[in-house]
Every structure is written in C-alpha cells, then in structure tokens.
C-alpha cells in the first residue's frame, strides 16, 4: 500500500515510512492512495471472529508489503490481549435500538489505547528490523499522554517524552502518566499551559538539530497508524448488530476528527454506515462546518470534556481532501487561506455531499451533566462526559429509529469525576482492578520552565534510555 499527502506535493511513502513520518513534507497529512473495499459477503464472513482476528482482516491491506502477515497477526494478538474485557469492545444497550460501544477497557481507560497500544508495538517492530532508535515528543492535556506512554513503555527502541501543563491535568490523568517508570519514559511538567507544550513539540519538529540525527516521531492523531487502528471497531460493532446485512448509524464524541474519520473510512471500505454524527462540546468548529459550512477558528473554551477542547481539528484536512476529489492543490490553497484568515468554507455541492452522511451537534457543559443524570436515572449506567455528549447528539440528530444507533464510549467515567459529581450522580466510581493502587504508586516527573531550550537540552541529555543521545 502506498500513501499520498493531502496537499499533493510530498513523495508517496510505504506503510513503514508513513508510520515514522509526522506531517508530510508539504505540510499535508498522509492517506492511503487506494482504499481497500470489501464485499458484503466478505464482511459477513467475519462475524464472530475474536477482535484481533477481525483487526487483521480489516487492516492487512494497509500494511501489505511492509509487515509479513504472520508477524502482523502476532502483533495484533499481543495488542488486544491487554484489554480487560473478553470482547475488547463490548456493546451495552441503553434503549431499544441505542447502544454504547465501550472503548475504555484498555490499560488507560480511554479509546486511545486501541491505536496507541498498536502503534508502540508497530514502531518497535519496524525499528528493530532497521536497527534504528527514535525519540517521541508529545504534548497532552490528558488522555493522549498516558495512552502513548502505556503504548511505548515496553519498546526497546523508543524514548518517549510527554509534556503536560504543570498542575493543570487531573490527578488521575497525571498519575496514569507519572507512575509508569522505565528508563525510556520521560514525563515533563511544563510551567505553562497546554498550548505552550504543543508549541514546543511543533518547534522541535521544525528544528531537530538537538536530536543529533535521531529521528523524531509523532504520536498525535495525524499519525496514519492511529486512524487505521480505529477503523476496526466500527466493523466490530456493526457485525454484532446485524451488519453488514443492515445499516448502522454512529455518534462520535469528536475533537480532532480522528475517531470519526475512521468511521468514514469504514463506510468507504464497504461497511453500510447510514449516518455519522459529529458530537462536540462548546468548542464547536466542526459543528459550525457541518451545520452551516463555516469552519471558522474561535478561542478555546475549557469544558467538562477536556479531551475534546480544540480550536481546529487536525484530521479534518483528510475529509477536505476527499470532498475536493483528492485534489491536493485545491486543499493546499484552502488551508493556506485558512491559515491567513482563520476562516474556511467549501463550495455548496461539496458541503451537501458531506451532509449526506454527517450530522452534528454542539453540547454545553450543562446539557452534558443533564444527560449523565438522565442516563443514570433510566439505566443505572454512569457515562463519562465525552460519551454523554455522544448520547445527547445521537438522540437529537438521529435520522431513523429502525437503524441501530451506536454511540462511541470514549472514556471510563472514573477518569472524569468532576463531571459525574456535577451531574449529581450518587454512586461511587472505583478504579478498575489493574489501577486500584494508582494513588499509592511512586511517581516520576521532571518540572521544567516554559523554555524551549531547556526542554530540548533535557531531551538530548536523556533520549537514549535516560542517557545522553
Ligand atoms: C481524544 C478523545 C476524544 C476525541 O477524539 P478525536 O479523535 O480527537 O476526535 C473524545 N473522547 C475522549 C475521551 C478522548 O480521549
């Protein structure tokens, strides 16, 4: 499989290179040159497969030519053996034809484990083959950091540096990162905010001199392998609900548009998806596009669903590429103008095309709490705030009551006790067994000033399993 850039000017890469690449050299994002397409009969024949075997069927066309089938199967089996539920991604019924797909049974209790558990293993496999080491740098306001660290902790050939804003992530989220102790794990608390952390990652990608020739790898959702891994659970959910003989609708709590873009790809690969609902919090740039063709940058509004607090959605460019007939020059022009003006809209017929599949809703903090309370009252289930936004949007935007509606349950409620408390749900939330002693575990973290040079010096002093590069 070859991968091309959404801006049309960067060289095409194979899977191995795309795994190690961040942005394409033209500033675009990599997408498959040709999407595999499965027949209804083929998809139907996968019913009842264990998750890792289904994952192999869905993903092997993407890695073909780079990873031998037998090795890929082994990697997938190890990846999903790590999940605390035998079905890996179980469905839970809320109402008649309404289901939550629980994607929070991985090691860090959020759906990001599906992709990052795989990414760490793929990286280590490819690097061992090449005899290379890499450094990962990432910024996090919560979920991504812990999932990336968990995914990379066993990697022989990776040192990972994750920056979070000092004293500005929740205690559970901080401990999920800082209690993972390994020579190759480096937590940095920056005396600044999340944007400061992200700026330092960007600046480090732009000027890599401090790395002395070691390659820098991105683990944010622009990495193609993350999107790829998320396609699988759309198939998994549909197969359990009578698909592909019948259509399925999905509602997806959305920030950077990675997770829902995977659902869009699943549909283009042959899964009968009738509707995709973009569920956002107050940071609603995607809702403004889907409802009124206005993708206009706004300021950041901190919310009760912090993993969806974004100003722009990095993966939206991948959808724009398809909406423009895969014309890289047109996408580049559109994004250049967005960069200059902070505004973007597309031609009417392209927008209408998107609206055939996508609906959207922006949900306030108040409505999020209302939904948590209501679902608890009627079903006894406690939703995390992100999932609650998905449920709210599913109920308001649903096109057909005959088609099963699946809401992606993106995080375990124990990670977001503040929202659950505000919803006045009177129930105790316990950490699952593998994290029960999280508050007793020793932590390791280095606090650094909001200073690029200091951070880069730290990376180059510790980037080789704690030793200098
Ligand atoms: C990351 C995250 C999201 C948003 O996913 P995107 O792929 O960025 O759209 C939603 N919910 C939770 C809990 C997350 O961690």
UniProtKB/TrEMBL annotation:
EC number from the UniProt entry: 4.2.3.1
Enzyme class, UniProt record, top EC level: lyase
Gene3D superfamilies, sorted: 3.40.50.1100, Threonine synthase, N-terminal domain (3.90.1380.10)
Keyword Amino-acid biosynthesis: yes
Cofactor(s) needed: pyridoxal 5'-phosphate
Tryptophan synthase beta chain-like PALP domain: residues covered: 92-333
Protein name: Threonine synthase
